[in-house]
Amino acid sequence: MLGHGAKFEQKMQQAIAALLSHRSIEQAANEVGISSNTLQRWMKEAEFQAELRKARRAAFSQAIGRLQDAASAASSTLLRIMTDSNTPAATRLRAIEIVLEQGAKAATINDLDDRVTKLERNAHSAEITWLSSKPLPDTAPSRAQIAAPDGSAPEADAEAIE
Q: Is residue 162 situated within a structural domain?
């Protein structure tokens, strides 16, 4: 980073940490013991911006990890609310809706993941086989001239070739 040595760079690192934990630039600058103008000037420097983005990504990743760790407890609580006969009916109904919605979303995500995986696998192994070396006049190749990777052609197109 631009600056005047290790002490200056340490102040910048402290400023980045302060920006992550305070609501305003002024509060962050006060925490580090610099003016808000200095911190705003640092925030315009490309290297400082890159370090700040890196720190924000790390902080966000940790927050997501904590939420994922809490997912099991949240699921247990939701299921307990849903099955507790002493819970008001409206609350139980909402818990049921959440369970069904999230289950459906999870199933959709799994299905999409499977489909994308298959498409990627096929894209890597696909080869185009030309059935005819005779080009069509002034047009792009049609499906009649292109066979699938296994060498077969669609029935309607196969008839057009003959």
A: no
